[in-house]
Amino acid sequence: MSLPILNAVQAKLLFLKNTEKKLSAARIPSARVEAELLIRHFTGQSRIELLTGDQPIRPRHRRLIEQALQKRLQRIPLAYVIGEADFFGRDFCVTPDTLIPRPETEILLEQALELMDSPLCPKKPQVLEIGAGTGCLAVSLTIARPDCRMTALDISPKALKVASKNAKRYGVSRNIRFRYSNLFSVFGRTKKECWDVLISNPPYIASDEMKALPREVRKEPVLALDGGKKGLDIIFKILEEAPAYLKKGAWLLIEIGKGQHRDLEKKLNKIDAYHQIIFIKDLAGIKRVLKARKK
What we know:
Distance between the termini: 83 Å
Oligomer: single chain
Largest sheet: 7 strands, mixed
């Protein structure tokens, strides 16, 4: 007795189920979601088209999906496998040379936009980002506020190439200056107070916690994760050096790690260059973003 021939929808659902099973067997969380994302990425089909459409998965696409699946089973982050990640509703190109954008960083973006739209911030604000990475923050800010004058710095030339690619993708490459710099080093000895807003998602994982990170996270750039003994080395440097570059009344916004607000409060009290110090919580109740205003 011959087996029934599957129609296109049945064949796709079976392929989806088998992909999900392989991910589940490897104990990868959200196996169903990842299986769908893999298939949709390489076929170009929407979720509705995948689940109900009669367009089959072509052999070439099946091979690409299987190759990507093998990489994912080796615990390579999904974003690196498919080459992109979502941030604030947009897809950004990512590579192993860049940190993968995370939902927590969207809070940093939202806070920056809120400040830039308030009477406390001048029109056509001068905005500086330290640690451009994929460029997701600089690009998203510039799309929302095309009048801002954005400069984004990074110590990784490879990351800057990715950021530039993303800026070009969204048509804002002429609006953003990307520069190679170790923190403020690009400015040399010139310490001019010219920035209205400074934003940063710096490395803030403590060095002795790096080995305890999930296997996928450990495949991301160490330079973008390791923040020194308590995870605060880079943040402290930014806090110390930023006043020389910020205008009076300018705002500093930095993404921070769990429990770091205590040490940061002590540090800010010693610097005596900031006031209106506020910590913004994420959805888990963790104080995730530091906001401080230059006196």
